[in-house]
Specification:
Radius of gyration: 15 Å
Low-confidence stretches: none
Order of helices and strands: EHHEHHEHHEEH
Structural class: alpha/beta
CATH class: Alpha Beta
Distance between the termini: 24 Å
Helix content: 40-55%
Strand order of the largest sheet: 3-2-1-4-5
Mean pLDDT: 92
């Protein structure tokens, strides 16, 4: 597994909507991504879900503007039929979580950042909140 982190929609929304008390942890992760200290990835499905929520809260143009900026530091990885089949035939009760899990796994991404840690029962990837992840970093990589 490489040093790419998969970021879930809730973590992105924490950042873009400045949701407390989670904003500071999300902001630190994305700042590290922006500085190149780590690499961030997600799927087009996550972008679509985030846009759907942002447009209701902030309007279409502001939502697009924020996602354009996010796109500069968050790579988009594809979901294909293999990931769909794996998620459909898995024990995940939330299909989207299954898609994210198998997409991360198939792309050799070892960590998923989410606030819904309990939704992931599989154990071959590390599932953490941004706060938990940041606690694992050496001091020199922070800020």
């Amino acid at each position: 597994m490489n040093n790419i982190l998969f970021v879930d929609a809730d973590v992105i929304l924490d950042l873009l909507c400045k949701r407390e008390p989670f904003y500071a942890f999300a902001a630190e992760v994305f700042t590290l991504g922006d500085k190149g200290a780590l690499h961030l990835a997600t799927t087009s499905l996550v972008y679509a879900n985030v846009f759907y929520i942002l447009r209701k809260v902030l309007g279409i143009e502001k939502a697009k503007e924020l996602l354009r900026k996010l796109r500069l530091i968050v790579r988009v990885i594809p979901i294909d039929e293999k990931m769909v089949d794996l998620a459909l035939n898995s024990q995940f009760s939330d299909f989207e979580d299954g898609l994210q899990y198998f997409t991360a796994r198939e792309n050799d991404i070892g960590i998923i950042l989410t606030r819904n840690v309990k939704d992931y029962k599989e154990k071959d990837l590390l599932i953490q909140t941004p706060e938990e992840y940041l606690k694992t970093l050496p001091i020199k990589n922070k800020r």
